[in-house]
Amino acid sequence: MTSANSPLLLSNVRLPDDRHEHGGETVSVSVVGGRIEAIGPNVAPPPDALVEDGGGALLLPGFVEGHTHLDKTHWGRDWYVNEVGPNLTDRIANEREFRKSSGHDAGVQSLALSRAFLAAGTTRLRTHVDIDTDAGLRYLEGVLGTRDTLADVLDMQIVAFPQSGLLIRPGTDELLGNALAAGADVLGALDPSLIDGDPVGSLNATFALAERYGKPIDIHLHEPGEIGAFTLKLLLDRVEAMGMQGRVVVSHAFCLGALPEPTALLERVARLRVALLTSAPPSRTVPPLKRCRELGITIFGGNDGIRDTWTPFGIPDMLERAMFIGMRYDLRRDDDLAVAFDCVSHAAAQGCGFADYGLHAGARADLVLVDAPTLAHAVVARPVRKLVVANGRIVARNGALAAAA
């Protein structure tokens, strides 16, 4: 793995441009101090730079995972036999009991999955971490350790998430405050109507905590149809009243795909600059992607859980998630597949608030090379990552982490 202070020149790489059969123009990228210094066809190498010939590979910005659960994963462990009941509350209770009795180590597991994300080109990531009255801050401490270990190469945001509910488990609000004070970046929330049974009280408590600690909010809203719409309207009332525009993400928002006419609600979401996250699940309704984008809503993608007690599915590959977004939303044209990729790149960086993102001078040098003729082909074929650069360091080659990473 190259040092953060080592200058780098990536030569002979192609910018993504699906207007052409073979992608865009061939350029070089100079990297100094972890930042893109220059990008273009005639870029000279910085003094003492390592020169890396990209071999005509397609150049992409580092991928952004907008919603996962690093603390829950069984990645790399023996198969978990899933016999959980069908309800959300079944899954919550089953997971809480399993983690309590099995010795599941959030630090070890989050590090294993984070490294796999990095090898596949994800350089920025938002993870939700369970905070509850059984575990206290134990899972958070494990993930904070992973964030510290990979701080030079993986830009990680942590959401303090009340997976078991807020009001229904007294003491959770205090634990959430402690988590935010300990280093969590974002305050999470969960289904104020169906889990807490008191949407007004639950949202009031959530927004009060966010205001006290000066943190943004990312709420899991699984609630369907009219119930979900009712909760969303209450949430938007608080965003407006408390000046939280641009500081709230609604994850999943299944209700927006079930309403017969969601336009008025979507227009308010857009006006208040509330972002939406979708994992594009095949079994649930999803927010209308193109309509959201037409209205100026930031809508982005994430895997959700990967190989945990909730689901046996998922791998830490954001190109695969972009493909799933394309399949779920019937995106077939090359320009539509570019929208799917945007959901795991620029839109995700914007929705999460990751600064200095992209392929331009001054951006953090997070770069991915793939052997693919076009961006659309990369999303569909998901080729092995030829090279991954994170914060100016070469961290992976041909799908494998460099030894120092």
Automatic annotation (TrEMBL):
<dbReference type="InterPro" id="IPR052349">
    <property type="entry name" value="Metallo-hydrolase_Enzymes"/>
</dbReference>
<feature type="domain" description="Amidohydrolase 3">
    <location>
        <begin position="52"/>
        <end position="396"/>
    </location>
</feature>
<feature type="region of interest" description="Disordered">
    <location>
        <begin position="1"/>
        <end position="24"/>
    </location>
</feature>
<dbReference type="InterPro" id="IPR011059">
    <property type="entry name" value="Metal-dep_hydrolase_composite"/>
</dbReference>
<dbReference type="GO" id="GO:0016814">
    <property type="term" value="F:hydrolase activity, acting on carbon-nitrogen (but not peptide) bonds, in cyclic amidines"/>
</dbReference>
<dbReference type="InterPro" id="IPR032466">
    <property type="entry name" value="Metal_Hydrolase"/>
</dbReference>
<dbReference type="InterPro" id="IPR013108">
    <property type="entry name" value="Amidohydro_3"/>
</dbReference>
<dbReference type="Pfam" id="PF07969">
    <property type="entry name" value="Amidohydro_3"/>
</dbReference>
<feature type="compositionally biased region" description="Basic and acidic residues">
    <location>
        <begin position="15"/>
        <end position="24"/>
    </location>
</feature>
<protein>
    <submittedName>
        <fullName>Amidohydrolase family protein</fullName>
    </submittedName>
</protein>
